[in-house]
Amino acid sequence: MTKVALLMGGWSAEREVSLSSGAECAAALRAEGYEVKTIDVGRDIDALASALTPRPDVVFNALHGRGGEDGTVQGVLEFLRIPYTHSGVLASAVAMHKPTAKAVFAAAGLPLPEGRVVSRRELAAGDVYARPFVAKPINEGSSVGVRIVYEGDNAWTEEAARWSYPEALVERYVPGREITVAVMGERALGALEIRPNISAMYDYEAKYRPGGSTHLMPAPIHPKAYAAALEISLAAHRALGCRGVSRADLRYDDSRGEPGRMVLLEVNTQPGMTPTSLVPDIAKHAGIDFRALVRWMVENAACDF
């Protein structure tokens, strides 16, 4: 019987999401016949190494955010030479650092929103772009800290002065619809449209509260736009050097009619696997149920070196 160590929890702002993803994946893997040991990962590397003794056959990485998604834990697993799910050290680190990922995407010729990195002081000094614009931390996931600043938003001046991070990535706002694409190995599985129900943007609450958003699968957009979303997402996955499953987030600007303009925002190398997550919905539409999805991840686990 294959022994799987499942990493979950962690210390990032996405800890609770990771615990939910981990519980869902552990249950599915056990149902598939794997021997699963769950590990709530902390900052103690000795404790992690001890928990991985005796050595499992595979590590299923269900961590999200800093520490689990940015190449840190991947480096530990490479050192221990234990195959693990999802992307390797370099792809994970680059994808998590949004400005670096954008540079890679730009070099690959992918469509991106205009943006630049500014210091906390520059952010507080005044608007970088004409409103509306988007301000986000450079290395957080699950929309943590993301802020859309609209015309007449009087609260932003004070919020900018209290920005919690050393830097911000500020981008021109792209109007339109939220589109996300799941990539599995060398295959883009499909494109889904997200319609938030409880907020204007697809924020943390809309992502993880039951009923927080409506998932339309397949995305009801022009066939040419749908094909472009798949093409861009697979190209982004390859440009970063991802392996396993990733998820690309895009904006579809159809404000002037269809087919509109598809713009890549970012790639998530550790997409959520909670009951409200997107990748399982896309995979299901492609004929891959949740148990088959996590089984494929385990079967395709690897080390970079």
List keywords for this structure.
305 residues; alpha+beta; Rossmann fold; D-amino Acid Aminotransferase, Chain A, domain 1; Dna Ligase, domain 1; 3 domains
Structure overview:
The chain is of the alpha+beta class. The chain has 3 domains: 3-85, Rossmann fold, CATH 3.40.50; 95-111 and 175-299, 2-Layer Sandwich (D-amino Acid Aminotransferase, Chain A, domain 1); 115-172, Dna Ligase, domain 1 (2-Layer Sandwich). It is built from 11 helices and 12 strands. The protein has helices spanning 15-31, 45-51, 72-80, 89-96, 98-107, 120-125, 156-161, 204-208, 223-240, 278-285, 290-299, and strands spanning 3-9, 35-41, 58-61, 115-119, 133-136, 147-149, 167-172, 177-184, 187-196, 213-216, 245-253, 261-268. The strands form 3 sheets. The chain has a 5-stranded antiparallel sheet. A 4-stranded antiparallel sheet has the order 4-7-5-6. A hairpin with a 7-residue loop joins strand 11 (245-253) and strand 12. Helix 1 (15-31) crosses helix 11 (290-299). The radius of gyration is 19 Å and the shape is globular. The relative contact order is 0.16.
